[in-house]
Amino acid sequence: MAPLLEVRDLRTYFHTQDGIVKAVDGVSFYVNRGETLGIVGESGCGKSVTSLSIMRLIPTPPGKIAGGQILFDGEDLLQASEEEMRNIRGNRIAMIFQDPMTSLNPVLTIGRQITESLELHLKLTKKEARDRAVELLDMVGIPSASKRLDNYPHQFSGGMRQRVMIAMALSCNPELLIADEPTTALDVTIQAQILELINRLREELGTAVILITHDLGVVAGMTDRVTVMYAGKVVEEGPTSEIFANPRMPYTIGLLRSIPRLDEERGRRLTPIRGLPPNLIDLPPICPFSPRCDYAREECLASAPALRSVGQYHRAACHFDITIDTPVPQQVTSDVAA
């Protein structure tokens, strides 16, 4: 069966006064019907720009989708007209944005913001749309839903606003839900509730989910497969269990070493990834992670590694066979470290 969504060699660039920022540079992945794909990486690696590209919401100028294909149910979204995209957004593909306070309109009631898409896409009457909005708010755990419909966003807490965003995203029973950091700035109790809600709705409605996050703990418990991004590229991908048990790209290994684990001995110090992500303007043709990599060698400065198979359904972009058990060298090549 063909994937529900297939992204092929997607390139999204931003033209600035300093040069061209290649925020997404040759990204490819797929999402099957009913599964959850996790996209992980540090801030600035291209996760959110990838999701906005799928929705065709890149601000132009300065942004531009420079190439590639985004095949949704066999149709290339990059070739669709703006009217066709308006029929797809919120209807067949929905998105939960990072910050619900800035994503919700502060001068419209919550009820109006939910019923608008119901009236537009499902052609419901105002009464039918309002009744459906009450059902949606009940579904996502908003108490006294019929009364809260007439409230404004500022009258809700951060967790409640995020639930409203989920209700809006699920209002038309989309085939694909993109959740861009849905638990950012929420306390851990609300985070767990939001993630449990997304997982339950996925199981009940059969919706495919792209979960974008920097939290590997969330990825471990929520996803079927993982795509790791760095410097606008995919650097590792595979089944979630395989990525956590046998990471093969030093960046992924660094991410896993920098989080606490219950199965580690007490007193073990976390190992952070040194340095900062690279400037994406005029990035040289080397491995983008090499200046921060403990395993970097001369070959890493000669060319950027391509994704290669390192196991069944598991690919990694590294010139060498590195595993999480490979000892970290005491000293790296001076040229690479510089």
TrEMBL record:
<dbReference type="InterPro" id="IPR013563">
    <property type="entry name" value="Oligopep_ABC_C"/>
</dbReference>
<dbReference type="InterPro" id="IPR003593">
    <property type="entry name" value="AAA+_ATPase"/>
</dbReference>
<dbReference type="GO" id="GO:0005886">
    <property type="term" value="C:plasma membrane"/>
</dbReference>
<keyword id="KW-1003">Cell membrane</keyword>
<dbReference type="InterPro" id="IPR027417">
    <property type="entry name" value="P-loop_NTPase"/>
</dbReference>
<dbReference type="GO" id="GO:0016887">
    <property type="term" value="F:ATP hydrolysis activity"/>
</dbReference>
<keyword id="KW-0547">Nucleotide-binding</keyword>
<comment type="similarity">
    <text>Belongs to the ABC transporter superfamily.</text>
</comment>
<protein>
    <submittedName>
        <fullName>Peptide ABC transporter ATP-binding protein</fullName>
    </submittedName>
</protein>
<dbReference type="GO" id="GO:0015833">
    <property type="term" value="P:peptide transport"/>
</dbReference>
<keyword id="KW-0472">Membrane</keyword>
<keyword id="KW-0067">ATP-binding</keyword>
<keyword id="KW-0813">Transport</keyword>
<dbReference type="GO" id="GO:0005524">
    <property type="term" value="F:ATP binding"/>
</dbReference>
<feature type="domain" description="ABC transporter">
    <location>
        <begin position="5"/>
        <end position="256"/>
    </location>
</feature>
<dbReference type="Pfam" id="PF00005">
    <property type="entry name" value="ABC_tran"/>
</dbReference>
<dbReference type="Pfam" id="PF08352">
    <property type="entry name" value="oligo_HPY"/>
</dbReference>
<dbReference type="InterPro" id="IPR050388">
    <property type="entry name" value="ABC_Ni/Peptide_Import"/>
</dbReference>
<dbReference type="InterPro" id="IPR003439">
    <property type="entry name" value="ABC_transporter-like_ATP-bd"/>
</dbReference>
<dbReference type="InterPro" id="IPR017871">
    <property type="entry name" value="ABC_transporter-like_CS"/>
</dbReference>
